[in-house]
Specification:
Number of strands: 12
Number of helices: 11
Helix content: 25-40%
Radius of gyration: 19 Å
Strand order of the largest sheet: 1-8-7-6-5-4-3-2
Shape: globular
Low-confidence stretches: 270-278
Length: 332
Amino acid sequence: MSLPEILRHPMALPVVASPLFIVSGPELVIAQSTAGVIGSFPSLNARPAALLDDWLHRITEETLAFAVQNPDKPVAPFAVNQIVHKSNDRLDADVQMCIDHQVPIVITSLGARPEINDAIHSYGGIVLHDVISDRFARKAIEKGADGLIAVAAGAGGHAGTTSPFALLREIRQWFDGPLLASGSIAHGASILAAQVAGADLAYVGSAFMSTHEANNDEAYKQMIVDSASGDIVYSNLFTGIHGNYLRGSITAAGLDPDDLAVSDPSAMDFGSGGSEDAKAWRDIWGSGQGVGSVDRRQSVAELVQQLRAQYDEALAAPIFDGGGFVRVGSTA
């Protein structure tokens, strides 16, 4: 099965920038798309809900204008993330807004519903669904998703615990459609590794949290730069679902990152943005284990250029095939 046309759009890198709760806004998405990678944001970031219409207008108009003014540069499409969970009382209205604006890519999380997929398909959009296991992957495709995001161990936010090598191979045994790899990808060589392991594109999040265009606290950005994989804590205390968070932010909130309580999953609340949900992302900062590769604060354009240089270097590097050294992609 070939990739949908929208995912074969000319891009600087085979990358989808993951939707970052609170962090992703129009400035970040526009910068990502105009730098040549697919930008995205959670619809719930637009508060109040009426602001979503303005955001979609702005992103569409500004990326189109940039493309017209820069015909020699790849301008990638964008995506909107929808939380398909019963607590999200905005879901129907936000999906309708995506239909009205014909958002090219919708990323669904925490639930797969055929009627949502059908709604996006009605105007030619595609749906990518994030999963943490092969079982959830099969359910998502059965319900009409076009592609999958394998959220493996080490990913930021609500991550799984399965190795990306295991998860990608299990899914590829039966699914030949669009497959993205998520988990600790913050370097160009890791993007290439994801493709070699079976993914079509890499799903990159934490690296963008330190960029100038990201809508997070300056201290948050600096903590991304200063942290390494050992500074990531996996806990379900803050939202009811296990996720990866920065140790420093947990300590700053007055908690012991080495002695966190276990939360009741029924306490999840993603729709209302209540105080506990806000605390989880506003005060307790999510991040993936790939932050050790983030060593500076820079613009999105500079980050994408850096990732591209690293990707090209990895692509040209020799590898051992058992009989001699060959280059990745070589026909020798």
